[in-house]
């Protein structure tokens, strides 16, 4: 009559301990019926539990006995035939005939009992939580123990599902795993490419540093240094584009992974079943791997920006050191061109003067004379001396 006033079940004293049928009956009915009635109720309840246990495990017992009969027949036949393959075939045929005629068990049922027994003889949880029809579906050799355990866990959670839903669920589970494995392979490839890009960026930085030092100490190979700097800039820009593409790829993988994790997290046998997460080696979670890759990309982009600034400074230093020489050379070329233009104009004037009258063209000749005078004064001023 203990705990009559309580409405909640007491917690077990030891881990894994559960209340017996007697304890449960007393707890629930002690306030309603007398002790003698409780005794009769407990006895009936125990018989029901034992009957249910026998029903649940009966097919495993039948399978074990059929396996014993088959093995006995095989050993006896093999002694006489001395041919294991033939003895095994004949033992199977003999067992089917015997079971059909003596035990009224069909060939199909014999095979079913034997296969289920052989497949799940060491899987106590599968036998405990799944029935014969469900185990018959799961006995296939292509269904792994891990996939069987998914169904066992679902039944432990008291999730309801039919036999027709088992195979589609396993197929969805495999498809989700394949997608995650593919995504992780793509992520690893992107990380490897990112590492290669970072290494190449460091190499380019060293080349640019070398070119800057060379341009500061040598003035003999200006064009070669300029070309080398330009080539280094092109290579650096190309590498920046590559790193940017890798960043976009990692971000895309991250989005796909998030969506896939959401789908897998909602998986149930009837809908989508088991949460699946494949964590790369060295990380706590896939999100940590994505975050690490994004951080490496951010560091790489910052380093690329600094490298571009260094390259621009090197180019400016090289160009500034040669500006004066370039200006003098350009001015010399321009003056040579002006001299050639004046000589050509003089030759044209002489030809025109000899073939045309001067009086009608006097106003134009005065204008031409003034222009020539202005040019003479300007050249005289720049030259600093008169003829």
Give an overview of the whole structure:
- The chain has 387 residues and is mainly α.
- The chain folds into 3 domains: 21-121, no CATH class; 169-326, Methane Monooxygenase Hydroxylase, Chain G, domain 1 (Up-down Bundle); 340-383.
- 78% of the residues lie in helices and 0% in strands.
- α1 packs antiparallel against α2 (35-81), α2 crosses α3 (84-102) and α2 packs across α4 (107-120).
- The longest helix is centred in the last third of the chain and has 70 residues, at 286-355.
- The radius of gyration is 47 Å and the shape is elongated.
- The model is unreliable at 1-17 (pLDDT under 50).
Do you know the CATH architecture of the largest domain?
A: Up-down Bundle
Spans with pLDDT under 50 lasting ≥5 residues? 1-17
Distance between the termini: 140 Å
Largest sheet: none
Number of beta strands: 0
The tally of domains stands at 3
Q: Name the helicity range.
A: over 70%
Quickly name the level 1 CATH class of the largest domain.
Mainly Alpha
What sort of overall outline do the alpha carbons produce when their principal axes are compared?
A: elongated
Find the structural class using helix and strand composition.
Answer: mainly alpha
What is the strand content?
Answer: under 5%
Radius of gyration: 47 Å
CATH fold field value of the largest domain? Methane Monooxygenase Hydroxylase, Chain G, domain 1
- The helix/strand order is HHHHHHHHHHH
Helical element count? 11
Give average pLDDT, whole number.
76
